[in-house]
Design goal:
By secondary structure, the protein is an all-beta fold. Helix content is 1%, strand content 52%. The protein is built from 1 helix and 28 strands.
Length: 303
């Protein structure tokens, strides 16, 4: 029986590798043996920084340096909405119900857009510079953002109010992620650390050490039992969320790991500026190294 998985992998970020990528691909990896190219999405005029699926997999949102966020039909690759911003947009996320998209921009503002109409619904203030990462909580009532001003913010979506600000880092925040229950918020950044916060109390619960360079991405497994962190140190680390112990260190080939995502509860894909995909089973080991012809943000179907 074939099982279909939907994940996305950001293979490269321009500010790190100093080049431009204006496309992203939808492809298939079949039986972990080969890659086939299905679609090319080529409407961006500059770097693509973020790509996400809608919860029902029918839409894709992409954000880029060209000051545009595009919502695409996944079936035919057509742009449904072009959400114009005053500055570049390094981050975007679909709400859990798929009705809205949140974007984080170089002007430090988070914007919430109606997916059906393309209308701008809210502008969330609270940051003074680039929002590198935005994320909805599982219920869709909160949005977290982290950025260049060294802080993490949680907003109430209905009121636009800043509920909590975290100032524990003295360096850029590159990634924020809620755990599947929504009880915890994690952040990571340029101080090489991962911080774990209780959302309700606002308390810092724990700090994870292990990476030797900037931690660029965070992702939870669907069941919430594992955390993956991707770093400039060319590794993906897998953490047990029960006790926060380090379980595995997956070593990439040459360059930074910009994105790491779980395919399911046992498999993970990670992408970096070396134009490779690193796949790894957590119970038994396999290495799938699939060369991509361009440094791009890449969208994958795993079958």
């Amino acid at each position: 029986m074939k099982i279909k998985y939907n994940v996305f992998v950001i293979l490269a970020i321009g500010v790190v590798s100093w080049s431009y990528y204006q496309l992203f691909y939808e492809s298939e990896i079949i039986d972990s043996d080969y890659i086939t190219l299905d679609k090319v999405f080529a409407e961006h005029n500059d770097e693509v920084w973020s790509v996400k699926f809608s919860p029902n997999d029918s839409l894709v949102v992409s954000a880029g340096y060209d000051e545009n966020v595009k919502i695409w039909s996944r079936s035919d690759g057509k742009v449904i909405h072009n959400l114009k911003h005053p500055h570049g947009v390094p981050s975007a996320d679909f709400s859990p119900n798929g009705n809205t998209v949140c974007t984080g921009s170089y002007d430090g503002k988070a914007r919430i857009w109606d997916v059906k109409t393309g209308e701008l619904l809210h502008v969330l203030n609270g940051h003074e510079s680039t929002l590198w990462s935005v994320a909805y909580n599982p219920s869709g009532g909160l949005i977290a953002g982290g950025g260049n001003d060294d802080k993490v913010t949680i907003w109430d979506i209905q009121t636009g109010e800043v509920l909590i600000e975290f100032h524990d880092s003295e360096k850029d925040i590159w990634s924020v992620a809620f755990n599947p229950s929504g009880e915890l918020l994690l952040s990571s950044g340029s101080d090489n650390l991962i911080r774990i916060y209780n959302v309700k109390s606002g308390k810092l619960l724990k700090t994870l050490e292990g990476h030797s360079m900037v931690v660029l991405s965070l992702a939870f497994s669907p069941n919430g039992k594992l955390l993956a962190s991707g770093s400039d140190d060319k590794t993906v680390k897998i953490w047990d969320t029960n006790n926060w112990k380090l379980l595995h260190t997956l070593i990439g080939e040459n360059e930074a790991i910009h994105s790491a995502v779980f395919v399911d509860n046992k498999r993970i894909l990670a992408g970096g500026t070396n134009k490779k995909i690193l796949g790894e089973f957590l119970e038994y080991h396999f290495n799938y190294q699939g060369s991509i012809k361009h440094n791009v943000a890449t969208l994958w179907d795993i079958n």
